[in-house]
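Escalated from tier 1: acetyl coenzyme *A holo job.
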Amino acid sequence: MNAIRSVVRGIGSYLPEKVVTNAELSRRLDTSDEWIVQRTGICQRHVAADGQATSALARIAAERALADAGLGADAIDLIVLATATPDQTFPATAATVQAELGIVRGAAFDLQAVCSGFVFALATADAHLRTGMFKRALVIGAETFSRILDWEDRTTCVLFGDGAGAMVIEAVPADEAGARGVVTTHLRSDGRHRFKLYVDGGPSSTQTVGHLRMEGREVFRHAVGMITDVIEDAFAATGESAESIDWFVPHQANRRIIDASAQKLNIAPEKVVTTVDRHGNTSAASIPLALDVARKDGRIKDGDLVLLEAMGGGFTWASALVRW
Ligand code: ACO
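Tier 2 regenerated the structure:
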């Protein structure tokens, strides 16, 4: 049997129109542009319009990824949508996106790994394509974190924003794909840390949506170690290294975490793609948002080796190496 590789065909993203700057937040909260920029690197975030649900953001990102791939929606037979802010408890937001794209075959489901969601979704879609079960997947990260923030809590609300990103991957026989495609993925979770970053509500506990709660210092303390461990796993599995990768596209949570991780791994600063300043932490959407920027501005070229990583609630953490 000819082995299959999951090759990237297209990338797209969407940020809602409404922008909330640090200056605006500092007019309603005891905070400042200086504090937020110095601690996080975030200058602004985008917030979905009233009535604009996660599926609406996801759909636009998906349409842009399909356009980038030069494919119609009918080419897709799998949607894996990572979100911690679904439209409803059920059905899956992926099912809404599938219907709105007019896709009536294959499967669509949500995946919940919070900020690590996109890498978990990519690994899941890749595994499904490699079995031969599906031919082309939309891997989506989409969030409306503005709906689960406590806007009175300055320690959390300044950090997050809304957005969506999508990638089209295609099953290609390995001899045709050559070096292109998803090279390796590494997923980790440790539920002992689940109350360091969580939402204090849910259908089966409080029957409310709840608000995001976080021990920021504890998250920070664990983040760099977990990120570097799972990247070292990717390097060990493939023989690649900080020198051989072309781009490092980390989860965009916080500039200090990104810089500290790159420094610990000896990744040259010019290889690091950072977009957190423009949209804050968009959880599962942040990696495809950053990938789309770096692809469209000409940094990521065909054949480039791209390192992805994320860490988030659970804790969950993950890495992927993708040859574009
Ligand atoms: N504006 C002004 N002051 C603030 C704000 C704010 N928005 N938020 C907190 N402070 C105050 C605190 O009340 C505290 O005041 P005190 O000294 O009088 O008590 C002071 O600033 C310092 O607070 P710390 O929490 O110690 O600040 P720290 O330097 O740790 O920075 C931060 C906080 C930015 C949250 C940091 O801990 C961090 O980045 N953690 C990681 C969080 C993260 O990125 N989470 C995202 C999800 S996980 C992921 O995606 C990786």
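The longest helix spans residues 216-238.
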